[in-house]
Each structure stands twice: as C-alpha cells, then as structure tokens.
C-alpha cells in the first residue's frame, strides 16, 4: 500500500512527546512489511536535521482570503521519504506549538495550512490512479479529512482515503464558527452537536479512526474523557478502533541501547546496577541500598502532577528512597518540583530539560518508574520501563491499564492504583517500598516485566485492516 502520514512530530526530526516515537515506530514497521510510506511534516525552525536536498517544489492554496505558497523539500531519513512543508512565517519558529508559555495564536491557521497544502501537493504530484491512504495524526493533521473530501468533489485523489489516529483527545484546537471561512470550510462540513474543533472536524470526516489503546477508546465513548466529543465518538463507533502502540526495541532495549555506557539483559543485571551508580554519581546522590524511583515526563496536568507533588511532599520525609525526575512543561508544577528538591536534597532531584540520552539512562537506572497519569491514551514510558526492568507504578487508566498488570494480580508486572488521589498514590508508593524490601519477589516481577513484548509488528497487522476498511466505505 501507499501510505502518506501527515504528522506534526517524528522521532529524529522533531519531538515533544510520544507522538514522535509513534509516528516513526509505525512508519518503520509499515515499511518493513513492504508498504511505501511517505512522511509529511512542517519544516520547523527547530528541526533536528539540516540535511535537506536542494530541489524543492512549490504548492499554493487559498486560505484566509489569500493564496499562500509553501515549498516542499525532500529528505531521505532512515530509508523513508520525508516531505517537509516550508513556510517561513508559519513554521520557522523556535518551538512547534507554543512560545514556551502560550500556544501560538495562529495555530488553527498554521496547521490548517499544513493540511491543505499537503493535500494539494498530493493532488498535483501523486499518481491519482493508485489507492493511497492518507494517515493523519492528532488535531494538527485532522483537517486533512475534509480537505481530501473537497478535492474529491473536484475529481481529484478519488482513490485516496483519510484515516485519523488520535494520540491525545484532550488536545483539540478549539475553533469558533467565525474561523470556518478562514479555513475554507462550510457549516455542513463540520459536526453540529459537539464542540467545534480541528479534532472534531477530523473525527466527523475521516473514513476510519483509531486511538492508541483499547482502554482509551472505551473511555472516549463517555465524558469526561472525551472532552465533550463523546456523542461524536459514539456516532462513529463502528469506524473507531483501539490499536495499542508498539515499542521500537531497536532503540529501547537495555542490551543494545546506544545511549547507555553499560548494557544488561534479564539474565545478567550487572549493567543495570552500573547505570544506577552512574546516575547517582552524576547527580551527587548517595550510593545507597534504598530504591530509586525515576520519571521522564511532560510536566502537564495529564501526568498527575497535581496529586504527585503533594504525595511526594508527604511521603519523602518518611521513607528511605531516592526520586529523580526529568521533564519540561507547566510552571505551576515546575516551581513546586524545584521546591521539593530544595526541601529534600538527599532524596529528590528534578531536572528541568529535554534530553533523549538522559531519558534512556533514567529508564535503565531506576528500580521503579512513576507514571501516575490522570489519563493516558497509550503511554510509551511504562512500556520502555517494563523492558528495562524498572517496575512501572501507574494509575489504572487508558493504555497504562492495558499494558501493566498490577501487584496482587496474576502475572503482575508493576504497581497499579485506581483513584487519581494523593492517598491512592501514596499507598502505591508504600507498596513499592514493601515489594523492594522483599528482593526475591521484586526480582521475580522484574524478570516477568522484562519478558513482555509490545511490538509494532502486532500493531501493523491492525493498521493494515484499518486501512483496508477505509477503502470499503
Ligand atoms: P506523552 O506522549 O503523553 O508525552 P508517552 O509516554 O507516550 O507520553 O511518550 C513520551 C515520550 O517522550 C517518551 O519517549 C519519553 O522518553 C519522551 N520524553 C518526555 N519528556 C522527556 C524529556 N524531558 N526528555 C527526554 N525525553 C522525554
Ligand atoms: C500522546 C499520548 C500518549 C501516547 C502518545 C503516542 O502523546 O499522551 O499516551 O503514548 O501520544 O501515541
């Protein structure tokens, strides 16, 4: 099949979170199954590569009452064709979605333009007799669904179908009815009974939809998880799948991980102890026998910081443990995290930053990985943690519930708690301390965790069916 991804992040080119891991992981797995995959991505100022080919093609679309042009630049990256859509004013900014504090005011127009220009380019430059799946990811690509329909009414891209993957339904990019003319959309092209947003327009118009776990799909059929769109998800239920993300074990395996200086596997964990010692030395933490809790996370309310911070403040004085967290995000949590470090310099470190290599070291060094999310569409860090033998502590929600078996259940691989509350999380932390004290039991669970496999190949089988289903409509 020919598959074109419209996406706003791609590992190795631009990443703010798991969306980048997912688009690259899925693209590579599809390619390995023999499909022809092309990635379309904005050419951001912050793109990690500068190695673009000299040639470019131009494309013009009418939007916001004017004709706006983009250059399409080609890049070959890990045997995949990447088409970067260049528009200096829209995309040559230091960060993709916001200025560090506030979302850019013109995000609807920026990503509406990205979708419309990408579709116009495909209409002009692809062999229109061939069936093509246009696979959009999240709200940034969602308007591709309606722009494809508009082109099809003009007789173009008749053999293409649009599939939308929802990696996070909390981000919708809300619109007002006044925005529709700016985006070249009419009232009958958008859903009527639910909040108007880029995401809701995509959900309304895509041939097929999916989200990134079965558990989260179930949650989206009702409120509050659906953020006002439950009626729309219900209306599209027959075309809406839940497909768990995979893990790219060529990047996330402690036996081969390029970011680590010591390697290990289930039969020999010496390297894991060396990683832990390295991390402690680097952060000037004592080389003690106490358990080490780690976290790598976007610092947003999604990730449970509203109860994680008070829980740690209450729990840390009472325990012998160390906690190391890295993340970037909302100041309302970053301030209190820095304060925790001042209060407990021997037990707590917060590293404000985004560092790929360091995130691998944290995964390898920890005994437990903290992921107490309020909601989690899939979550990749708990999947990485399983492979690294760093038992995940998760709230039982969305993809976390689908991938981690909680302590007390048959085949337990981590610790799971139900309510997003300080009390439930603190109880889970206490369970972790007790488990770690029983090293025989801890090691049995760790071995089991390390055997778990969440491969992209399993996901690809489901995506192939989704693509085929899109053509039956
Ligand atoms: P989400 O996409 O909601 O942020 P996921 O668990 O799906 O959550 O994926 C997060 C990805 O982003 C992981 O690959 C994680 O290692 C990475 N990540 C998050 N914060 C940082 C950071 N501060 N530095 C490096 N990597 C990070
Ligand atoms: C989103 C979700 C996360 C998911 C990732 C990749 O960022 O928050 O749960 O793993 O997308 O699908």
Strand content: 15-25%
Q: Strand count, sense and closure of the main sheet? A: 9 strands, mixed
What's the alpha carbon Rg, rounded to whole Å?
Answer: 23 Å
Mean pLDDT: 96
Oligomer: single chain
Unique ligands: adenosine-5'-diphosphate, alpha-D-glucopyranose
Low-confidence stretches: none
User: Gap between N and C termini, in Å?
Assistant: 17 Å
Helix content: 25-40%
- The total of beta strands comes to 15
Q: Strands of the biggest beta sheet: in what spatial order?
A: 3-4-5-2-1-6-7-8-9
> With helices defined by DSSP (H or I, 4 residues minimum), what is the helix count?
18
| Category from helices, strands and their pairing | alpha/beta
Shape: globular
Overview of this structure, please?
The chain has 473 residues and is an alpha/beta fold. Helices cover 39% and strands 19% of the residues. The chain has 18 helices and 15 strands. It has helices spanning 18-32, 88-91, 107-125, 139-142, 144-153, 179-182, 198-205, 214-220, 230-235, 270-283, 305-315, 331-343, 356-365, 381-387, 398-403, 422-437, 439-451, 456-471; strands spanning 2-6, 36-42, 56-63, 66-77, 80-86, 132-137, 160-166, 208-211, 240-242, 292-299, 322-329, 348-352, 368-371, 391-395, 415-417. The strands form 2 sheets. Strands 3-4-5-2-1-6-7-8-9 form a 9-stranded mixed sheet, sandwiched between helices. Helix 1 (18-32) links the parallel strand 1 (2-6) and strand 2. It starts with a strand and ends with a helix. The model has no long low-confidence stretch (mean pLDDT 96). Residues 17-19, 21, 296-298, 326-328, 354-356, 359, 378-381 line the site of adenosine-5'-diphosphate.
